[in-house]
Amino acid sequence: MVGVSDWQASGQAPAAPRAPVGKPLLSLTLATIMDDVEAHSGAVYLLAPDEPVLEMAVMAGLPRAFAAPWERVGINAPIPVAEALRRRRLIWVSGEEEMARCYPRIAVVLPYPFALAAVPVATGHTPYGAMFVTWPSTHPQELSDRERSHLIAAGDRLALRLERAVKQNRPLPSEPDLPTSATELTGRFGSVEAARLVERLPYGLCALDLHGRVSFANQATAELLGVPVDDLVGTQPWASVPWLNDPVYEDRYRAALMSQHVTSFVALRPPGEWLSFRLYPSTSGLSVRIARARAVSEMNRAQPRRTDTNPRLVTISHILSLASALTEAVSVQDVVQLVAEEVAPAVGSKALVVLGTQGGRMHVLGQHGYTDSRVVEHFDGLPLTAHTPGTRALSTGVPAFFESRGQLEHIYPARGATPDGMAAWAYLPLVASGRPVGTCVLAYAEPHTFPADERAVLTSLGGLVAQALERALLYDAKHQLAHGLQAALLPHSLPSLPGIEAAARYLPATLGMDIGGDFYDLVPTGGQAAAVIGDVQGHNVTAAGLMGQIRTAVRAYTTVGQAPGEVMRSTNRLLIDLGAELFASCLYLRLDPARGRAVLARAGHPPPLLRTPDGRVRVLDLPGGPLLGIDASATYPTTELELAPGSVLALCTDGLIEAPGVDIEDSLAELAGRFAELGDQPLDTLADTLVRSTESAQERPDDVALLLLRTRG
Hints:
Layout: H1 4-10, H2 25-37, E1 41-47, E2 53-60, E3 72-74, H3 80-87, E4 91-93, H4 96-102, H5 104-109, E5 114-123, E6 126-136, H6 145-167, H7 185-189, H8 192-199, E7 204-208, E8 214-217, H9 219-225, H10 229-232, H11 237-240, H12 247-259, E9 263-269, E10 273-282, E11 285-292, H13 296-299, H14 313-326, H15 332-347, E12 351-358, E13 361-368, H16 373-379, H17 389-396, E14 400-402, H18 405-411, E15 424-432, E16 435-444, H19 452-489, E17 500-507, E18 518-524, E19 529-536, H20 541-559, H21 564-577, E20 584-592, E21 597-603, E22 609-611, E23 617-619, E24 638-642, E25 648-652, H22 664-678, H23 683-695, E26 704-711
Antiparallel strand pairs: 1-2, 1-6, 2-3, 4-5, 5-6, 7-8, 7-11, 9-10, 10-11, 12-13, 12-16, 14-15, 15-16, 17-26, 18-19, 19-20, 20-21, 21-24, 22-23, 22-25, 25-26
């Protein structure tokens, strides 16, 4: 067995843990911890063999259908059990609001008030799985020390037992979920007379088990619902009563079980009679009171739209969960990764290929699970006219499902020439906005039947993936355009000048189009050099275009021999003459390494830093003029500076020193401290070091430019 980080890096998962034969290890552990902390539901997950996926092994307290979207989850999925194993610590979710804030994918599918705790099942660096338990919303906001210690201890004990089982190589028995059915109502009363009493009640009374099946119903229930008692018992009301066939009503049953709160709703029995349903939940099932609705206000409630089909909430749950995941995808690779981590585990697929179209041919946008590159190469470059299941699904917009290799090769005999080691396939056309954008191929390691409800789920998921892929393709195109524009406007390299070493770095913002108005340049001027750095307001194509005009203007004014102050004045007037509505900051200097002198002019730009050969650093707070593009009559005073050989100047834009909640003076002081400590490094190494913390930030609201100049004498 290896650690999570090890198999994440290697792409292989540890072998599935094995437990002693004949002992319901997982069920007993789960039942014990639920009893210890007074939880009302829970589940144990184990790592799947040979892949980084958690599989639900045992569940208790609720129907497994409630957790259907998370039967199999990738180890990197943003859900509590996966996070508990990744971070090797207890994860606590206090209620509905925190669930919506921290785990929105779960909150979308289960928008009910309940609390949850998840703990890892691992020893040292060896992961085995994770488990969770839930409580009704009446649980206190904080987990008690006793509950916390019991949960952590239970996870550790289970991990040790699994570790011993693995060392002894004992098989893991198939353990059923803990019992979730309720006893019949007559059994609870314990006498025939009590049952007769219930029969005489003027309102309907029935009992549902945890799976929503009717275990008892009195005669009044049958009369109110219009269905005989014998036809009700053993069925779910929303399946046996036609006018209750709406997911809204089943959702109320789920809400009552999850929250353990009394829940009610009204429903219209055709042609015009409103009935009131009140659900009283417990840990073993629900009691339902049914009566004629009295309040007129209840009758004004909007009637749910009837459909001819029988939609199941498990199907809706899958779609909601995966739709939530796909909204987070930005680039094409994000879409492929999310399909691999979220869709494939949920439907049991072992490998997938996402194909796009370009120039009348199919191209591989990404794949997961295939180790033989020849299999994927077979898809790449196929003309759309080729007779293959992928091209046909794309051209017709009709998904294709092949439950075995024999089915596939019977229709597409040429497909057998490129075996991929799989035994079943689903070809899903990706159609968005009425046009095909690609095909998603899901492959299964074993023969796989595709019942009607699963085909409906996969077809719906294909539509969601198509929309995400269309957005991602558009984003990638804009991203490439932005980067191409940025690369064209910034210098490809800095010139080699006598007596001067130079290094520069540029980092685009991570928000928006990854393009901005920061720029830098180094211009030789016959024995001297001119350096400029600036920042145009905004992070868009307009800002980048204006930046290119300013950089070209500065270079032109420098080439004709204007002094630093005049270069700034000329650029300012040009910006105003162009009628641009954006402003720009700028720092310009003329460097004479032979004389060890520099002349600087500043227009609203952050001050440069000077490191002298003895290692001291000064922030050069130079006098300057206003931002470029504001005042046509503005002047820009210059400052002459003495530079000893070995001195280093650092010119940067505000993206390097500004951070939310941090004073810019403190940021400058912190940058100066690092500059003083590391300034003897080669300039390229120093430049990388100074931007490293900014480069590694997950969110960079502003782009960054840095120009370093060292005089060599």
